[in-house]
Amino acid sequence: MISAAFLAQIQPKSPPSPYFWLPKPGSVGAADTDWLWGVLMGLSVVFALGIFAVMVYFVWKYQAKARSVNEVAEKTSDHNTALEITWSIVPLFIVIALFVWGFRGYMDLRTPPKDALDIQVTGQKWNWNFTYKNGLSDNVLHVPVDTPVRLVLQSVDVIHSLYIPAFRVKMDAVPGRFTELWFQATDAGEYPVFCAEYCGTGHSKMITKVVVHPASGYESWLTEQGKKLTDMPLPDLGKQLYEKQGCKTCHTVDGSPLIGPSWKGLFGRSESFADGSSLKADENYIRESIVDPQKKIVQGFAPVMPAYQGKLSDRELTAIIEYIKTLK
């Protein structure tokens, strides 16, 4: 069953699309992309209908009236130089025009402006994380309207692909290297973001959104969120990090196991590991399990958790530990 929260994520709060089959265009490059796509679709339909019409005509014209008619082979076609030149030259000019048009659009999409706002993006099973210029991290992408934005993508596990349909942009996040894409949103609102590369069992839930703020609203949001994180009690901050850092995709807080062990009752219990050893889950163990999860693998679980070394501050690590302590 699809939850209301899931539907809220994939339904943007932006004006309805003027198109039947495409979402509302929300970036400066979307119009050119849509126009080229429309031309390709129109040409495909015209040529397909023409070919189908000729096929139907030939089936009707050359159908056998009786078996005796087909007993003796007859010459039914001849070489036609003019026709062969026509069906070679005309499509050639069409393909060249489409190539030039498409290449110009491709170069525009691959060349971000020098003054673009940089945002770091990390993909991992199964969550997106966006890091802003003030060090703030969030699992929702926030950008200002009418401002070029450059996303620098990486992955910590497998290949993911950041896809924003309304902006007509998509780029793979690849382990061990950086990739980039850019866009400039034209309308304030919310637009869905998907992973477009199958990345495991939770792929279909790797969904978030981009919030396009009015010009002055983006800086205000950054300042407000930074202050909120500074003043927030540690357990509350830990709970927020559990949601935004993707911990919930692998660890429950109700005692049921997922990809990883549940956090409920974790603090203070004895954990058994794959190498046969055991240890009481205290602050040091939980911290080590976050920054270097491959060091001690809990028995019965696969070693698939990515390392968070350098991704979380000391305060954020402490906040997660304090939150786990409340899950008794």
Write the layout of secondary structure elements.
Elements: H1 4-10, H2 30-61, H3 81-110, E1 117-124, E2 127-131, E3 137-138, E4 141-144, E5 148-155, E6 160-164, E7 169-173, E8 179-184, E9 189-195, E10 208-213, H4 217-231, H5 234-244, E11 270-272, E12 278-280, H6 283-291, H7 314-325
Parallel strand pairs: 1-5, 4-10
Antiparallel strand pairs: 1-2, 2-3, 5-8, 6-7, 6-9, 9-10, 11-12
CATH architecture of the largest domain: Sandwich
Shape: elongated
Instruction: Measure the end-to-end span.
Output: 29 Å
Helix content: 25-40%
The biggest sheet amounts to: 5 strands, mixed
What order do the SSEs take from the amino end to the carboxyl end, as H and E? HHHEEEEEEEEEEHHEEHH
Q: How many beta-strand elements?
A: 12
Main CATH class of the largest domain: Mainly Beta
Question: Count of DSSP helices?
Answer: 7
What's the Cα radius of gyration?
28 Å
CATH superfamily of the largest domain: Cupredoxins -  blue copper proteins
**Strands in their spatial order, largest beta sheet:** 3-2-1-5-8
